[in-house]
């Protein structure tokens, strides 16, 4: 038998192709349910659609999928003797050079230090990557589940040869749709909804992270505050640089929390761990955040003329008891209305920002995808976040009383609680 290939969907569509159109084309071409097609095209990582194909058939699949709008590639593979375990190996581990040993064989024969299958780091401890925070076994299992889901339930007939799939064209599609792999514990999922009291639990768990290594947490926070002050002194660009790179720093804190959850220590070096991967996407989050507030500023300017006139009238009311001036009291109402508008526009932006650094650093999502998923997670947990916000406001006030020294404890707890909320909302 000649060399075999696997067809891999890269998680991207060709420029100008709408996702809805690609899903419709996928359903029509391969006779699968819309839900199944949507799951396949929602993959954010490399996803094996077909494997063990001869070159001719693999090329047919590639052309059919590219005609729909998917960006796919072919990779050569070798069938392991007596095993079909290739789906247990993430795409990232596939050999890049012809003639290279299969990943399974390489894992047994090579004596080199193991590396993380996601980021390539060799900082592994207790089955976890200290650089990107993943649990390697869960990451490989999730990759395998995605590959097997696509391979077993896509019901893709051989391209150009309809009717060759088992059970006839489309006959097994509905059956296989009903055999979708159930979510695994510890796997990333769509945002979950929690009761209001869960907001308090996020804070409690955040305190657990802090007390594991309080000195490192406080020193790291002090270093970041000092760096922010120094950079902020740079005219014109200082504050902008801080805002753009804050998601990178926050991603480092999230990776530090992940390391603690996997049995390691939070270290000062985690302050810069976010620079190890996806820096561009993290900075893009900061840029979109700045753009969002710039848009809010424009809206304020557009409305500001009338509000300022009303505000000045309201000030005159407070300075004068003349009955004729009481009509201008509406100016105070205008100021209140302006504040409510700004608050109403800022909250959705904060919701989109809140979990984005963690989703990018640990899941490899793009900035836009991470911000959309962050917004969805916050929307599904309005009540827990309400409790969380009230408690955090009280803690911040209390922490500020002793000359602000309490903030050395409060700020790490807030930061760590962002991670605990992220894990609680996006993981089974």
Question: Describe it for me?
Answer:
The protein has 428 residues and is mainly alpha-helical. The chain has 2 domains: 4-95 and 107-159, 2-Layer Sandwich (Ribosomal Protein L30, Chain: A); 198-290 and 351-426, no CATH class. The chain has 15 helices and 5 strands. It has helices at 19-30, 34-41, 55-68, 103-109, 136-153, 173-177, 198-212, 214-232, 238-261, 279-319, 330-354, 356-363, 367-379, 382-400, 407-426, and strands at residues 4-13, 47-54, 70-77, 124-125, 128-129. The strands form 2 sheets. It has a 3-stranded antiparallel sheet with strand order 2-1-3. A two-stranded antiparallel sheet has the order 4-5. Helix 7 (198-212) crosses helix 15, helix 8 (214-232) crosses helix 15 (407-426) and helix 14 (382-400) runs antiparallel to helix 15 (407-426). The two termini are 42 Å apart.
In brief:
By secondary structure, the chain is mainly alpha-helical. The chain folds into 2 domains: 4-95 and 107-159, Ribosomal Protein L30, Chain: A (2-Layer Sandwich), CATH 3.30.1390; 198-290 and 351-426, no CATH class. The protein has helices at residues 19-30, 34-41, 55-68, 103-109, 136-153, 173-177, 198-212, 214-232, 238-261, 279-319, 330-354, 356-363, 367-379, 382-400, 407-426; strands spanning 4-13, 47-54, 70-77, 124-125, 128-129.
- How many distinct folded domains? 2
- Record the strand order, biggest sheet: 2-1-3
Rg over CA atoms: 27 Å
User: Helix proportion of residues, in percent?
Assistant: 55-70%
- Based on DSSP secondary structure assignment, what is the total number of beta strands? 5
Number of helices: 15
H/E element sequence: EHHEHEHEEHHHHHHHHHHH
Could you give the distance between the termini? 42 Å
Low-confidence stretches: 81-111, 150-155, 158-186
Shape: globular
């Amino acid at each position: 038998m000649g060399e075999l290939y696997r067809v891999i969907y890269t998680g991207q569509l060709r420029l100008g192709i709408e996702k809805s159109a690609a899903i419709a084309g996928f359903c029509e071409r391969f006779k699968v349910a819309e839900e199944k097609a949507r799951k396949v095209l929602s993959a954010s990582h490399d996803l094996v659609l077909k494997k063990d194909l001869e070159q001719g058939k693999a090329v047919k699949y590639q052309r059919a999928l590219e005609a729909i709008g998917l960006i796919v590639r072919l990779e050569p593979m070798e069938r392991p003797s007596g095993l079909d375990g290739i789906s247990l190996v993430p795409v990232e581990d596939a050999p890049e050079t012809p003639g290279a040993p299969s990943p399974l064989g390489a894992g047994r024969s090579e004596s080199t230090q193991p590396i993380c299958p996601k980021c390539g780091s060799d900082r592994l401890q207790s089955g976890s990557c200290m650089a990107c925070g993943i649990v390697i076994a869960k990451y490989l299992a999730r990759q395998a589940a995605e590959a097997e889901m696509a391979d077993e339930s896509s019901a893709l007939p051989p391209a150009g040869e309809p009717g060759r799939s088992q059970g006839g064209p489309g006959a097994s599609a509905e059956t296989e749709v009903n055999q979708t792999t159930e979510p695994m514990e510890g796997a990333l999922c769509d945002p979950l909804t929690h009761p209001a009291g869960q907001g308090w639990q996020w804070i409690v768990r955040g305190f657990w992270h802090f007390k594991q290594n309080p000195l490192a947490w406080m020193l790291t926070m002090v270093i970041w505050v000092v760096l922010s002050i120094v950079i902020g002194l740079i005219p014109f660009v200082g504050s902008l640089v801080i805002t753009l790179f804050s998601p990178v720093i926050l991603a480092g804190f999230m990776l530090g929390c992940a390391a603690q959850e996997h049995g390691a220590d939070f270290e000062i070096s985690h302050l810069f761990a976010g620079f190890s991967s996806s820096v561009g996407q993290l900075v893009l989050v900061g840029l979109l955040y700045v753009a969002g507030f710039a848009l809010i500023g424009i809206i304020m300017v557009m409305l500001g003329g009338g509000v300022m006139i009303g505000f000045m009238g309201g000030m005159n009311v407070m300075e004068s008891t003349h009955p004729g001036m009481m009509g201008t009291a509406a100016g105070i109402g205008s100021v209140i209305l302006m504040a409510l508008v700004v608050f109403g526009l800022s909250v959705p932006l904060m919701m989109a920002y809140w979990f984005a650094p963690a989703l990018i650093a640990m899941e490899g999502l793009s900035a836009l995808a991470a911000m959309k998923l962050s917004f969805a997670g916050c929307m599904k947990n309005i009540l827990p976040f309400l409790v969380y916000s009230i408690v955090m406001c009280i803690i911040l006030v209390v922490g500020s009383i002793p000359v602000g020294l309490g903030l050395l404890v409060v700020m790490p707890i807030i930061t760590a609680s962002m991670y605990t909320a992220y894990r609680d909302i996006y993981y089974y």
